[in-house]
Amino acid sequence: MEEREITLTLRDFLLSKGWQILSVHFPGAQGGFSISVNGKSRSWVPDIIASKNSVVIIVECKPKYSRGDVDKLNIMFSNPKIFKKFKQKLGLTSDFVFQKAIGFQAAHFDQENIPNDFIIFLVKEKIISRFCLESVLTQPYIRLCKFVNW
């Protein structure tokens, strides 16, 4: 599967589960929701941003697991300035719970490469499986599961 198919499949899955898609960005597309990282010289465009019941999920999609996508999300979540811009641009208040996620083809799943605080969407044709390590089961994730009803 190509990145576009992964993104489309995951978008459709989230819509079917009652998520509101705030932004979707396909490979090679122009524009979309972007956050400036270093002034105007570099910006970051998430593949999918979706919300449901005061939860916002930010997803990077690739055909195979990509450490680079994990690093991008970790940088955004750990930098208060970038995260503040992100929330302002979406018009979100502080009472939202934010969750990092990556989506990739199930055939390339290797549990050893999975980051601790991410939700993983494994895509196999039109079937999505969700996975997270036990360490993700923190208070925000419990709230995520409670309000989202996967």
In CATH, the architecture is 3-Layer(aba) Sandwich
The counted number of beta strands is 8
**Helical coverage, percent range:** 25-40%
Total of DSSP H or I helical runs spanning 4+ residues: 4
Strand content: 25-35%
At the first level of CATH, the class is Alpha Beta
Spatial order of the strands forming the largest sheet: 1-4-5-6-7-8
Order of helices and strands: HEEEEEHHEEEH
Main structural class:
alpha/beta
The N- and C-terminal alpha carbons lie at a distance of 24 Å
Q: Work out the count of structural domains.
A: 1
Sheet of most strands:
6 strands, mixed
Short overview:
The protein has 150 residues and is of the alpha/beta class.
Written description of the protein model:
- The structure is a single chain.
- Residues 134-150 have low confidence and may be disordered.
- The chain has 150 residues and is of the alpha/beta class.
- The chain contains four helices and eight strands.
- The chain has one domain: Trna Endonuclease, Chain: A, domain 1.
- It has a six-stranded mixed sheet with strand order 1-4-5-6-7-8, with helices on both faces. It has a two-stranded antiparallel sheet with strand order 2-3.
- It has helices spanning 3-16, 67-78, 80-90, 139-148; strands at residues 20-24, 35-36, 43-44, 48-52, 55-61, 97-105, 118-124, 127-131.
